[in-house]
């Protein structure tokens, strides 16, 4: 009698456990849950990329300092005001040569697809 009660209880417990596991897995596979998981993974990946970029920048700054020290370059402590670059005056049409603002025409070759057949 106790043997039957034990196996009945064990079977019922296994059934409840399996049903709970299946229901949890089904909830994880709903479209809303999958979308939330994808969003979480994307955010996590973004954070990892940001951390990587910060590490790369820190390494670049450190390496630049090492190179400047090794080469004896002294960077100015405070950079002066940025000097304005003078742009060339645009030329008018008809002046000497082509202007840097015009595009050169590229010769086109007409191609008839029916010539090969």
Give a topology summary.
Elements (H helix, E strand, L loop, with lengths): L1 H27 L2 H41 L46
Report on this structure.
By secondary structure, the chain is mainly alpha-helical. It contains two helices and no strands. The chain has helices at residues 2-28, 31-71. The mean pLDDT is 81.
Structure described in brief:
This protein has helices at residues 2-28, 31-71.
The helical percent reads: 55-70%
Query: How far is the first residue's CA from the last residue's CA?
Result: 92 Å
Mean pLDDT: 81
Q: What is the N-to-C succession of helices and strands?
A: HH
Largest sheet: none
Number of strands: 0
Indicate the proportion of strand residues. Answer: under 5%
**Low-confidence stretches at least 5 residues in length (pLDDT < 50)?**
none
Number of helices: 2
Approximate shape? elongated
Structural class based on helices, strands and sheet pairing: mainly alpha
Radius of gyration: 36 Å
Key traits:
2 helices; single chain; 117 residues; mainly alpha
